[in-house]
Amino acid sequence: MTRRIDVHVIGRGGLPVEMRAALQGIDDLQARMSSEEEMHRGVELVRDRAPDIAVLDVEGDPAGALSAAEELTRSAPGTLLVAACRADTGTAFDGRDDLIALMRAGVRDFLRRPISARELDEVLMRQVIGSRKGGATGQVICFAGNKGGVGKSTLAVNAAAMLARRHPGRVLLVDASLQLGVCASMLDLEPETTLTDAARELYRLDETLLRNLAVEHDSGLELLAAPRDAAEAATIDEAAFARILSTARRTYDWVIVDSFPLLDGIAMTALDLAARVWVVMTSAVPTLRGGVTFLRIIDRLGVPPERVRIALNAPQPRFTGALAKADVTGRLNRKVDAIIPFNKQILISADLGQPFGLRKHALSRTQKALRNIVHDIENLSAVAAHTTEIES
Which residue, 229, 280, 359, 392, is most buried by CB atoms nearer than 10 A? Predict the structure, then answer.
């Protein structure tokens, strides 16, 4: 079974290169790695993203590494801290006392440089993977688009509710349309707490508090609603949002994000953390042209094409002159993964706050299409990767 792990390296020179090579040398490991040379910035990134493991370079600046370890122990308690140093540490340390100080500061293990795949694997098995139930954090799924009105929120809400019906208490829907969130209305919920409350409690946010801030739907879905107004929305920045998502990944198996149709810092954070991005569009020519541009942009931003799926939504009945599927795939230069046929009942369900996907009747073509999206999301955790994925 493939193991999955997020790694962040704080260090200069050859340490990130050594880590990439060592991670690639572990056959059954799927890793996402990022790195930062500057210690202060690296600490901020670990605090915000809460990876499974942070590797500190303690050779060039042992005092800085000690301070960083102390800060991360306070602000990122779920991240394993590992120090990387050479066997002869005399040039960087005063000896045993410095190593003990690092351990007291929260460093749990050490890697000898140059880092070997065998030793790294032993550390991961000993400290992270072997002690974590299921061996993986939750998956982030982002529903995105280049414009409003294409049915993005409708698909996000229905997919999340259908998935939660199968896995109650294991799915969180995050309404990241900070100023125009509609997920609560589409679920007929009136949350007393929102994303804003999570941001305000950021420095004590953990799994228990996050579940207390989320509101539960009858389907078993839990919702972290959008802020109540624009003033509240202004208090949430991308760093806060990243930390909220990182906590959500440790709490739920699937975190569904309904993003705002704008590539701001919040949307880019969701895209960066997402294991799957469902891009929703319609066959209207202006929307389709914008969709082509949107796909090109997120590709340049580093979202791998294999993580992206295309959902073609039909918000109105077919009409003479409407683009056919072949026309759409030709313009996109890639396949369409799901086609959601027009069904006025899905619009009525949204108005009533009753997700169409939960209705108890024979499967319509629309419900079958929604179910295919749910299966794609559900299977993310079961996908076996045969190569190590490294991201810098």
Answer: 280
